[in-house]
Amino acid sequence: MSKKTQIVIFSVIVLIVGIGFFYAVGKDTGVLLKQTVLNSEYVSLVGDNLLVSNGKKFGYYGLDGNKKIDLKYSFEQESYSRSLDSKDDLFVITANNVLYGVINSKGKEIIPKEYIAIRIISSKCFLVQSEDLLWSVIDNNNKVIIDNKYKNFDIIKNKGAILYNDEQYEIIDIEGKKLSNSKYVYVVSYNDGDVLVGQYGTGVNDLYIYTKNKYKAITGVGDMISVKDGEVFYPADEGTFDSYNIETGKVGHEANVDFSVNDMFINVNEEGLVGFRSSDETKVIENKYDVDGTFEFNEDGVAVVSLKGKIGVIDIDGKEVIPCKYKHVVAYSDKLFEVSEDLEKYYLVDSSDKKLGERLRATDNYVSYSNGDKCGVLNKYGKTIFTSKYLDCQVYDNLVIVKDKDKNWIIKY
């Protein structure tokens, strides 16, 4: 199959599904090397630190278990996740669970307690929410950088944030400087914000690539964008691609770009059915799957597919790993899957379709699950991090927390 043919095939998928095409490959082993144990009524990860509470007051501890802020601030469990944050030496605190401010580890006030929620972008930039529920951007002198007008945001850790209202998006860097000069329909991020794609809805996009501690803007590129092995590939002249190395910033022209995962490409036939094939066409999987509910192969060599409205998983030989009998399937890897038959209860199953427990919460690397009134944690490959004997299980991208019957909170990171 020629490179030109591959590009046409992906364009067909874009037209049928009705979205832009953005493709990235990455893999995480989900290894946790350190452990801390704290005894308290409540522990949770808030920002970069641990929020610790005796049920009435809260403070902050580091991941290593060392206290950073005394337990002296009013605690309300229902509101902490919405209003509190911490980053490095900065901590959001409150006196009454109504208004919030920021202090450093020495107790010095950085931002006065006059907001209903705060998110820390950096030591020089903060997102603050006013009583009208809109978010502003301020500096460390409480001076407004961007006035309050945003309903929602996504923080790009250590790099900036995406601010948006409905279908209008803007991008700021770590100091609150507005990067975008257009109103974007939506923004896609890769690798914690290394690449941001602003979709105009016209097939023209802007890339913001984080290199050497700042964003590089590449504007006015087409839809066929790929990020692979530290390189960003984007359309240049008709039929060719340029490349941008995320680490070095080096630009290449007429680059060879591979849109496959595990050398498998997706294609759609004239009847609108989806199949797969390898670049040398030695592996061909019949075009029999529905467009709606069928996805590319992941880095672990499995693909979620829909057959006559029922969803399952196949491997690169076309063999069913999970039978097409569900209404919902997520492939965390080739060894762990989330399934649902009724879209009400969601379960974890292994590669033999054996039920492991009811899914509670999932991140990119870890999944918590329950068996009866106890919970446990698996990594994305189905390896047990904590067996299902705990009272509370929390999972984050690179950290997990569980609580035992003696109020010991075990933190692995």
Mean pLDDT: 89
Task: Please mark out the parts with pLDDT under 50 across 5 or more consecutive residues, or reply none.
Answer: 1-27
Report the sheet with the most strands, covering strand number, pairing sense and barrel closure: 7 strands, antiparallel
Structural class: mainly beta
Sheet-strand content, in percent, reads over 45%
Strand adjacency order, main sheet: 32-33-34-35-36-37-38
Say how many strands there are. 41
* Shape descriptor: globular
Gap from first CA to last CA: 45 Å
**Rg result:** 23 Å
Number of helices: 2
Portion of residues in helices? under 10%
Gist of the model:
The chain is mainly beta and 413 residues long.
Topology:
Layout (H helix, E strand, L loop, with lengths): L2 H15 L4 E3 L10 E5 L2 E5 L2 E5 L3 E5 L5 E8 L2 H7 L2 E2 L2 E5 L5 E5 L4 E7 L1 E6 L2 E5 L5 E4 L5 E7 L1 E5 L3 E6 L2 E6 L12 E5 L4 E5 L5 E7 L2 E8 L3 E4 L2 E5 L5 E5 L5 E2 L11 E5 L5 E5 L5 E6 L12 E6 L2 E6 L4 E7 L1 E4 L4 E5 L6 E4 L4 E8 L3 E6 L2 E6 L4 E7 L1 E4 L4 E4 L4 E5 L1
Parallel strand pairs: 1-22
Antiparallel strand pairs: 2-41, 3-4, 4-5, 5-6, 7-8, 8-9, 9-10, 11-12, 12-13, 13-14, 15-16, 16-17, 18-19, 19-20, 20-21, 22-23, 23-24, 24-25, 26-27, 27-28, 29-30, 30-31, 32-33, 33-34, 34-35, 35-36, 36-37, 37-38, 39-40, 40-41
